[in-house]
Amino acid sequence: MSQDVPPDPRGAPGLRMRSRLSVSFLFSIVALGIGFANQLLISARFGTSSGLDGYWIAVALVNVLGFYAVPLRDATVPVFHDVLGSQTDAARFASAAVSLSLLLGLSGGLLLAVCIVTGQPASLLGPPGKASQLGAMLVWLLPAAILVATTEVLAGLLVALDMVVRQAVLRLVPPVATCLSLVLLGGRLGIHALPVALVASSVATVAIAVHALAGRGFRIRLTDPRHAIHPKARRMFATLVIVYVFAQLHVLLERAVFARAGAGVVSAFQYAAAPVTALIGFLSGPLSSALWPRFLRLHADGDDARLAALLGNLMIFMGLPLAVACIFVFFNSGSIVHVLYSRGDFGTESTRITATALAFLIFTAVPACLSQVVGRLLNAQGNHRAMGMVSLAMAGAGMTLLTIGGSTGNYAVAMIHWFVANTIGAVLTLYLAYNPVRAAGSRLTTFARGGVQMAAVLGVALLVVPRVEFQESKVSLLLQLTAHFALYAGISGVAFALVYRKRILGYMGRSVPA
Description:
The protein is mostly helical.
């Protein structure tokens, strides 16, 4: 083992915040493009089918059984960041965390195998008459269930080391694996090419992350896993486990409810969610990776003023442009779905259901991005109670709407569960994250004024939003959507620049330290 020379937790020397964000966004754009290609392949090959419904339900069940994965990652990152002063201690802790993740993964895999043999979850959750199809899908996903926690923990260790490029590479692995699997194996394996891609991406993620850690002097070895849950993180881990169970049950309930709404409804909901989650990932992924270490440092330094200013900038420079883009998508959801998916087995009915779901889902991007990024501040503050409150409130609201919608047959109510749950989560996250930094001085007046300014920009956006007339020609429709959005974005951008000109000029003229 190398000597106790602490690695630079900021990553590459001289790589400032703007540079890190640029790298992350570049990789996110590439991942977004590959993910879009995947959606084209999936929609053309599988449409909105019960087989694809079964895949999404199986993935949800695997995530429920892997409830410990994200909590373990989020409890690992702050501790690993704290012990980086001694590379020996940090390497020992990293090995223990990975060992624990593998042990938990094997336990989860065993539990999944029991579920497969008994067949009870498949008969309860699967699309009507398709229980055996769901059971077969779970068999294909078994290796991914074993590795789910390990991939999360390893990715978290890279976050603590601020290895921006490697983190960005890891985000590319799943879409690349899916694309290759569909192209090379889709003809022979059919729908089972999707679980093969998930397993392959898990294996590749582990290999890339272990190699990256080794390059920084951290050799991962199997060791006593009991050292992974540091006393400082035990309460946070326990809290996160509870809330994550509810979060995953929320997703599982969603897919069970939509499975009973008719064949292809689960798939249509996932097609609609794909561009929304891509948008969320494009923004929140790079920002979370870049700002998490910054949150840790600012909180450790007690720099409340800069933390509060950072929250305000996030709301304006991320939340507001995102809301403006969502307005355009809402009014043109049918045309957008037609351009994206209408081909092969994706017919008129698939387009109609998916467009309806997209209109319900698109505004989720705004609160989801805010809550995910600011949630890293709660993690840095060690505020496990706040994180628990947010997650339980989100799961409770979403599951309530799903239950009402499913029991009454009103699937419009069920489809808004995602937006309502994430809005509640964003409001709570911002409030709870802002509370600890009030000592820097009251900013309530500033926040109120900012709200009025945001309303002004959104008002302009609503007045000028163009509706593109539908037509069968995808090329013509795409050109019209592009031209209309460019005009719309330009007008909204001018309004944004006029309202926030002082803040923008101040930001551009100020050097942002690493």
